[in-house]
Each structure stands twice: as structure tokens, then as C-alpha cells.
Predict the 3D structure of the following.
Amino acid sequence: MRIDLRSDTVTHPTPAMRRAMYEAEVGDDVYGEDPTVNRLEALAAEMVGKEAALFLSSGTQGNVCAMLTHCGRGDEIILGDQAHTFLSEAGAPAVLGGITPRPIHNQPDGTLDLAEVEAAIRPENVHFPTTRLITVENTHNQCGGMVLPLSYMSQLGALARRYGLKTHLDGARLFNAAVALGVPASAITADMDTVQFCLSKGLSAPIGSILAGPAEFIHRARRTRKILGGGTRQAGVIAAAGIVALTEMVDRLAEDHVNAKRLAEGLAQLPGVRLDPTRVQTNIVIMQLAEGLNVAETVERLREAGVLVSAFYGGRIRAVTHYGITAEDIDTALAVFQRVLEPVHA
Ligand SMILES: *Cc1c(COP(=O)(O)O)cnc(C)c1O
């Protein structure tokens, strides 16, 4: 038995994806001639309500491509101190673009306090970097997959426009947010200039992300992608799986949310676990262990018992539900958690 809850990136392509990949019509995408990539980009742009989209090899490449296209050397990006763009992209904007990150404290619900954002916007002064971009994350991974409300997205967009700033949404799990809110993804992205989302997470495609925005921006982003080594050739073989991801795999994310809730409610009953199940809104469950329980040791004992989870920053454990994980798997995983954690408190 092996129940892999480390991430929704461990999903394998579905049989329909394998077939679509096998049959994909292809061309040279650097020449703009891959019909399957072009079809995916048009579909993706439409789904997030933007003029154009670009297919990239990873979410990190999509976010970095966006940041490098929005900003130049000496510019500054306001982002969350728990954001993937700040914590988990190897400092790319600074490394590659001479761009300064300006982290703001992420509130427990994943938002940035708007007054703090406003206070961080630099006035015109020869000493200061130039504030150019505000980036938020929805759903918010480090904050337990919390969904940023629609009203927040529009307030943030309005604030940015008031100061002439651009906005980028790291929507790696944008469709989880859309399904949780019961709205089309385009409602979440309406007030953002650009958005990145992953095809390779809950949507189960093997590889790929989308960056979408105004046509003029995507035209420039195509050059940035080339600089990043992301211009690929017969990419339709991979894009074909992305089309299946967007047409067949979005609605079923609701199952993952139900399973995550089931897991969270079960875990919250265990004396060894500290967890508030009301904070579980999508497919991510983040827990803390009770005093005296060691995270690395617990993760290892769970693994030996067939349940894989991730040791996470700050002494936490993360479990993520996804395609291939059933309600029955959740019950099995809960039984394993109970067995692994209980002797300590016996
Ligand atoms: C996974 C993730 C990314 C990056 O995706 P990769 O494809 O792993 O590079 C970006 N942002 C968030 C919030 C993520 O969870």
C-alpha cells in the first residue's frame, strides 16, 4: 500500500491524456506553428478571461517569466513573505533580473493587508527602488490552500491601479480556488493584469503551466521565455495533455476538496495533531504535531506504514489530496495516522 499525499504534483497523466499525447498534431512552437500548443493557449486565455496566453514548462518558469516581463533592473515587487514567488523560486527575480523583492507579512488567510501594501509602495525618490508590481497567491499554499475572496482580489486590483502598478496572480492552484468559490476562473483573475496557473498539479497533466495576460504583454513574455530557455519545439505532445486537463479535470477538483475535508476532520480528532478543519477550504491540509512529537520522525514512520506526507516549513506537516486519491484512501490514511501517533499518548 502506498498513499502519496506529499503533493498534487505526484499525479500521473490520465488515460485520455496519454491518448491525446499520442495523437497530438505538432509543429515547431518557436515558429508559432504547433497547432496543439496554439489551441491550448487560446483555450487557457479564454478560461481566465485574458487576451492571450503562453505555455511554459513549469509554474516557476511562468512566475519568473511574468516578473521579468513586468519589471526591469532596479524595480521592486511587493509580495507575501509566505509566497511561493518569495520562498520557493530560488530568488529568481533578483538572480536573473536585478529586481528587489519587498515581502509583506502574509495574514493567516493568505492575503496581504491592503494598508501594509499601500505603505510599502515607494514614493518617487532617487534613493529608492521603483515599485512596479504586486504579486499575490490564490489558493495560498503556505497558508493551507486558503482561497482569497473575490472582494479582496478586486480591492487589491483597485489599489494597484490607483498607484499605476501592475498585478500578477500566482494561481498555481487557480482552479482549486474557482471550484471552491463556485465561480469561473475568470472571475478571480478579472482584476489582475497577469496570471500563472499550473496544469501539472491537481489537473494532472505531466508538465506545464500557463501565463496569461494582455496580448502585448504575452508578446513580450514570449521573448522572456526564450531568454529563460523555455522556447520548445514540438511541445504539442505535452500541450495535448494540458487541453485534457482544462476540459476534463477542473470540475473533479471538488472531490479533492471533499477528501481533504474528510482527512482534516479525522486528523483533528487525534490527540497528536493540532489542526483547525475549518481552515481547510481546498485540497491542502496543514497540521502541527502535539508537543513532544518529532516531525521528521513522524513523517518517516508514516512513510514506513505506506502514507507519504511532506515535512513543511515551521515544524508543520502538509498532506495534499489529488486525482487518484479516493475517500477510501483517506480512511486508510487516517487509520495509519492513528496507529503511528497514538502509542506516544497511550
Ligand atoms: C507549485 C507552485 C508553483 C510552481 O510550480 P512548479 O511547476 O513546481 O515550478 C508556484 N506557486 C505555487 C503557489 C505553487 O504551489
The chain is about 45% helix and 15% strand. The chain has two domains: 13-248, 252-345.
